[in-house]
Here is the input.
Amino acid sequence: MFSPQTYKERRRVLKESMSDGIGLFWTNDESPMNYAANGYRYRQDSTFLYFFGLDQPGLTAIIDFNSGAEILFGDDPALDDIIWIGPQISLKQKAENIMITDVRPVNQLQSYLSEVIKDKRTIHFVPPYRHEHRYKLNKILDISAQETDKKASTEMVKAIVKQRSFKSKRELEEITKAHDITREMHVTAMQMAQPGLLESDIAGKIEGMALARGTGVSFPVIFTIHGETLHNHYHGNLLEEGRLIINDSGAETAMHYAADITRTFPVTGRFTPEQKDIYQIVLQSQLSAMEQLKPGVVFKDVHKHAARNIVDGLKNVGLMKGDSTDAVERGAHALFFPHGLGHMMGLDVHDMENYGEQYVGYDDETTRSEQFGLAALRFGKRVQENFVLTIEPGIYFIPTLIDLWQKDNKFSDYINYEKVTAFRNFGGVRIEDDVVINDSGCEVLGKPIPKTVQEIEEMCAQ
Ligand code: GLY
Ligand code: MN
Here is the structure.
């Protein structure tokens, strides 16, 4: 945990941003796999972690934005529980670690909230993403399950996004710890890969490393020779000579800060000339995007810059043609690069996505495009110092999309479909690093992970 003062200070800043009413914060419950006592690995809610730090289910916290009062509702485990889960320090003591003195039993929550409702005070909560929270909102506040998102507090969401977007020095240290683990995962994968193994041989190994050194992976491992499927979680393919592997994986630290890294490398450890060509285009696009980044720059513009670089590169290898700027403005590049350049990262791998991307990635100045490809950009607004973002361009050959566009001769002014046919079984290339915006540019977080063709081939050979 961070220092007790950190949590108190975070709540103070939130109180300062909020006009009135009370803030209601819930922990995540255990999630049963098949019956109540057999749960998935527990993951605390990130909003609760940020303001209250405690990493356990069964708690509710209140911040009174008028009086400043802070209350933690929860129960100490009964003797029966202690026999199964072991001795625990008291909730009162845990509350001291986050500088809360008012601790009350769970059975007082309902009557507390009834008073608040009777006084017609506003109850602020963030949009629920778990059914258990929808159920509680229905049971305690009488909000129907269909209405919970609509009734969430836009005022509090905006206030929290404003706070959590800026990563403190200690948060950056935690994120860097996640990178240390993640680096080992990626290096191990490069060293292990060889024809004849299954994807799952390596995917399982690196997930185990994340568990051994942190709290596991920050999102389900993407480890596949079919990288053209952007979030491919299937790990049953045999690693075949001639294929590229996309390894998009990251660890989460004990305090639940994430890393999100992608490397692409050949099964055999040696790129073919064709693979090298496509790889270099993605690498150049990523490096050039990073050079653009500094406080005040609009991320949507950086995304377009990266896309133009991809079009320039694809023109050089004969897959695209025409004016690169026009191609990107009209969306022709999205046949090959159909996702966004990056997203915020922190306690969540897509940081704060549960609040709604329109609040995290967009604002009054920058609206989300509806154009295929650009619409997938999760973050488009101006970047500021101490924002942490992923930079992850890619080039993919997606047979379903190619067939669909080719049938309609879509963007045939920009796309050389005859040449694309030869790449149908290529797969995909994605390269992803996490950066923090500093006062004059950006810095890649964590120790370097092999990224150039030469570095990767050397690491694969070890
Ligand atoms: N690493 C998975 C993603 O960014 O969606
Ligand atoms: Mn990512």
Summary: The chain is about 40% helix and 15% strand. The chain has two domains: 4-164, 169-461. Residues 260, 343, 390, 392, 432 surround manganese (II) ion (ligand 2) (CB under 6 Å). The radius of gyration is 24 Å.
